[in-house]
Design goal:
Low-confidence stretches: none
Largest sheet: 7 strands, mixed
Number of strands: 7
Order of helices and strands: HHEEEEEHEEHHHHHHHHHHHHHHHHHH
Number of helices: 21
Strand content: 5-15%
Shape: globular
Number of domains: 3
Helix content: 40-55%
C-alpha cells in the first residue's frame, strides 16, 4: 500500500468524508452502456441466493423488447441463453408491462439498480419466474466512480498552506502516487471491458469514448457497442457507412442539403448503408449533442475519425497494445491519420476546408493515452515507468483542472510547474476527486491538509 492509499484508507465512512444523500442514478441508457461494458463485473447473487455469472453479455436489441438479446447466463452452474432486461427498480417490470408482453418470455435475467420498496415477483406472460439481481450499492459506486458532489468552488482550500511547505521532491512523490492510483483505477476499468468482450473491443470502445470527448462520450460509446468491431472487420469497405448509418446521420434529405462536391460521397455512403440498414438500424436513437460544439468536435468528424481508426486497426492495435508501449510512436501514428474526404470536412454537409484538419488531434491523443493506454501499460508493461509517463505533455487545461489548481495551490500561476505534464493533470484530478469532491464541510473538516504532514 502506498502512502497515498493510506491517505484514502484514513478517510472515515468507507472513503466518504461525510454522510450524504445517495447520488441520483444516471438514466437507464447510461446504466445499460456501463453494464454492457462489464463495469459492474459478471458475478452476482440473485434474489434466491443463487450464484449468477454472465457468460456472454449478448448484443443490443435494436427494436422493442428486452434490452439485450442472445446472452448466456450461468445460474448455479446451469447455462441459460436468452435475453436480459435492465430496469431502475424491480417494480418497473410490471409497471412497464413486461410481465404481459410475450416479447419478454425468453428473458433469463432481470437486473435492477435500486433496492425493492416492496416484495416483487418478476414473471413472464407464461408465468415463469425470472431470476432477479438487485445490483449492490457498492458495485454501483465502483462502476460509476462518482464523488459525493460534482464540483467544488474554485477558491483556495486549507491544503494550500501545507502543500506550499512541502519540499519539491515530496510534492513530486505525492503527485506520482496520486497519478499511479488513478491509472490503476483506469486500467481496472479497461480490463473489465476486455474480460467481457476481448481486448480489441475494449480498445475500440476506449477510442470511441475518447473521440466523444465530454459532450458525446456516452453517444460514441453506445455507437461502438451497437456496431461491434468484429462486424466492421467483416465489412472493411463499408466501415464508414455502417458507423454513420447506425449513428443516425444518413438520410435522403441530407444529400439535397449538401454542397455539390460532397454529394457523390454521400451517395456512396447511403447506397452502402441501404444494404445493411436492416441489420443495424435501431429504433432507439443515440442521444447526440450536435449544438454548442466546435466544428472540429462535431460528432460527424468524431465518427469519421473512428472509421479511419478501424480501417487502420492492425497498426493501431500494435501501437496501442503492443509491448513495449511507446507513447511517442502511438501519438505520432494518431497524428498521421488522414482520409481523402474528412481531412477537409467538418460535417457530412459542410463545404470543403482549404486547410487540412487533423482527424485525431493532439488533445484527443493525449486523452486516449492518459485515460486508457498508459494506465494499461503501467499495469502490464514493466518497461514503462512513471518517468516515461512524465514525457507526455499535458493537453489543454479544462475547467476541472483549473479548479484543481486553484483549490490545491491557490492559483493557476502557483500551480503552473505542475500543469505541464499529462501525468500531473491526472494526479491533481484524482486528489480533487478523492478529497475536494468528497468534502461537504466547505473544506473545514477535510482531513487532507492534516494528513499531508506524513509526506514530510
Amino acid at each position: 500500500m502506498t502512502a497515498y492509499d493510506e491517505l484514502l484508507a484514513g478517510i472515515s465512512n468507507g472513503g466518504k468524508l461525510a454522510e450524504a444523500p445517495p447520488l441520483p442514478l444516471p438514466d437507464e441508457l447510461e446504466l445499460q452502456a456501463l453494464w454492457f461494458a462489464g463495469a459492474f463485473g459478471r458475478d452476482f447473487t440473485d434474489h434466491q441466493g443463487r450464484a449468477i455469472r454472465i457468460i456472454q453479455f449478448g448484443e443490443w436489441n435494436r427494436t422493442a423488447g428486452p434490452d439485450f438479446l442472445r446472452a448466456v447466463v450461468e445460474i448455479d452452474g446451469g447455462k441459460h441463453d436468452g435475453a436480459l432486461e435492465l430496469d431502475l427498480e424491480p417494480a418497473d417490470w410490471e409497471a412497464h408491462g413486461h410481465g404481459s408482453d410475450p416479447a419478454f418470455n425468453d428473458v433469463v435475467l432481470h437486473v435492477t439498480f435500486r433496492p425493492p420498496a416492496t416484495t416483487t415477483f418478476t414473471r413472464t406472460a407464461e408465468h415463469r419466474e425470472v431470476p432477479h439481481v438487485s445490483m449492490p450499492a457498492q458495485l454501483i459506486q465502483q462502476a460509476l466512480q462518482l464523488p459525493t458532489r460534482d464540483i467544488a468552488i474554485a477558491r483556495p482550500g486549507r491544503c494550500v498552506h501545507p502543500l506550499s511547505k512541502l519540499p519539491e521532491d515530496t510534492l513530486r512523490s505525492l503527485l506520482q502516487q496520486s497519478s499511479e492510483h488513478r491509472a490503476a483505477l483506469k486500467a481496472a476499468r479497461f480490463l473489465k471491458t476486455a474480460d467481457a468482450h476481448g481486448r480489441d473491443a475494449a480498445l475500440y470502445h476506449a477510442a470511441a469514448e475518447t473521440l466523444g470527448y465530454r459532450a458525446n462520450a456516452l453517444a460514441m460509446r453506445l455507437l461502438a457497442q451497437r456496431v461491434p468491431l468484429s462486424a466492421l472487420k467483416e465489412n472493411p469497405d463499408d466501415i464508414e457507412a455502417l458507423l454513420f448509418g447506425a449513428a443516425g446521420f444518413l438520410s435522403p434529405e441530407l444529400h439535397e442539403k449538401a454542397p455539390l462536391d460532397t454529394r457523390d460521397h454521400l451517395r456512396q455512403l447511403w447506397d452502402t448503408w441501404w444494404k445493411h440498414r436492416g441489420n443495424w438500424e435501431s429504433t432507439h436513437p443515440i442521444p447526440w449533442k450536435l449544438h454548442g460544439q466546435r466544428p472540429a468536435n462535431h460528432p460527424h468528424r468524431r465518427v469519421a475519425a473512428l472509421a479511419t481508426l478501424v480501417r487502420n486497426w492492425p497498426t493501431f492495435r500494435k501501437r496501442a497494445l503492443g509491448r513495449p508501449f511507446s507513447p511517442k510512436t502511438t501519438t505520432a501514428f494518431l497524428a498521421e491519420l488522414a482520409d481523402p474526404f474528412w481531412t477537409h470536412r467538418h460535417t457530412l454537409s459542410s463545404a470543403a476546408s482549404a486547410r487540412p484538419i487533423a482527424l485525431f488531434g493532439k488533445s484527443q491523443a493525449t486523452e486516449l493515452l492518459a485515460n486508457h493506454l498508459i494506465p494499461l501499460a503501467l499495469h502490464e508493461d514493466p518497461r514503462l515507468d512513471f518517468e516515461a509517463y512524465l514525457k507526455l505533455p499535458a493537453g489543454a487545461k479544462n475547467e476541472k483542472v483549473r479548479r484543481c489548481a486553484i483549490r490545491l495551490f491557490g492559483s493557476e500561476e502557483v500551480a503552473k510547474p505542475w500543469l505541464k505534464k499529462a501525468a500531473h493533470h491526472q494526479a491533481l484530478l484524482q486528489i480533487y476527486h478523492d478529497f475536494c469532491l468528497e468534502d461537504l464541510s466547505d473544506c473545514h473538516d477535510c482531513p487532507f491538509p492534516e494528513q499531508l504532514s506524513q509526506w514530510s
